[in-house]
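Incident log, structure service

09:12 report received: a user says their structure output differs between two submissions of the same chain.
09:20 pulled the input from the user's history:
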Amino acid sequence: MKQFKLPDVGEGLTEAEIVSWKVKPGDTVKVNEIIVEIETAKSLVELPCPFAGTVTDLLVPEGTTVDVGTPIITVDDGTGAGDAPAEAPPRDDMAPAVPEDPSAIGTPTEDVAVEPGLIGGPAPGGRTSVLVGYGPRTTSATRRPRKAGTPGPTPAAASAAAAQQAVQTSMMTTPTPVREPELEQVAESAPGHTVGDAAGGNGARALAKPPVRKLAKDLGVDLSTVDPSGEGGVVTRADVEAAAGAGDLSGPGRGLHRREPDNQARETRVPVKGVRKMTAQAMVQSAFTAPHVTEWVTVDVTGTMDLVERLRSDRDFRDVKVSPLLVVMKALLLAVKRNPDINAAWDEAAQEIVVKHYVNLGIAAATPRGLVVPNIKDADQMSLRELAAALGELVETARAGRTQPADMGGGTMTITNVGVFGVDSGTPIINPGESAILCFGQVREMPWVVDGELAVRQVTQLSLSFDHRLVDGQLGSMFLADIARVLEDPATALLW
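09:34 re-ran on a clean worker, output below:
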């Protein structure tokens, strides 16, 4: 009998919420099988089981937040080890793991063929994949040749060997994201629940991708009752929306874990946790630490909108999404090149201004779980085509709730696009550790004076909030003006 404890799946993680169990008591699990989905302060993560056996008890109910290291599930692995939990050795113990009872394993670990990247499988540098990273480097070893006619390990022995190795080496290194399958079979995990197919009856499991599955959970839709329209019987996002009768997913409170109000309730209380809790803490810290200054400029972006249309028809941009935000990103990066001192951070402890010679550009993304700000690493080194691809991947990952903690750390500057909500501008709060944030408003037709005559032009408004401890008014104004110049006339970029 073994207990699986909640691991640290991200740097500095102290707690996580159990979102949904993928197994129930009595189910048989294999090594690397996904058993639970958890929500950290930054992302949704699916955890695999590091050992094989039969689930005997789910120790933490769904919707409960627990600390790292708390036992969350008990699995009977058939070893008769009592209720002793499966634990990893201390982090400073870097000696190779040696099984205490080789007879319980059944066959040497090196004879087990586990797919690369899974628990117990091979990893770069002669290491072994563990739950959230790679184990210690080992000397180069070769697989012992098997004599002709010698039977291979049984599935039970293979699972036990992989489990032993995962338990001995897990949690010893830096975390890495759990691998996400491209397409998953979705089933209700409640005891006694029978899952039907999408047509509702033959016992087949409904097929859906992880973002669609998350959407269905948020909307309270049972995927087994949804008629699939995707190729191969896959349930699509549109299918879920149609089943929920909710075509608009941008309504207030989407994705929040709200208590169901009764008919007499005059108010609803929403627990502050996860992304919303982290965002609130960061914004309070920033607002009461960095002295904010905000400046505005109104820009004729007709030239930018014409460029966007040309890029959309360009064959080099056919497989990426091109939007005005892409040009704004490029304009900001060019402005940083001309005004490098704005790309800095304030070191309170050392009383120094740290000027950074790279730009990790953050993009504020509204997701069903709240606002997240992942950043594109070394965005200043990318071409416009590379930026478009990186932006598309960033947005898709964020909306699916799969943004990893490392993707949201180390940002140097941020853009928030409020124009998608029909808003002209705002006074955004700087992300902690950064020097400025640019707010991009909606683009709309307005009367504008061109060469002394009134004309209808595409116009937007930009606002820039910056930390006045390290960015004075002149630097902030020059930086904002340079962004406006590129958006007004994109050909200016050729001169810089």
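09:41 both user submissions now match this output. Likely a transient worker issue. Closing.
09:42 reviewer note: The chain has three domains: 2-141+151-169, 184-244, 275-495. The radius of gyration is 27 Å.
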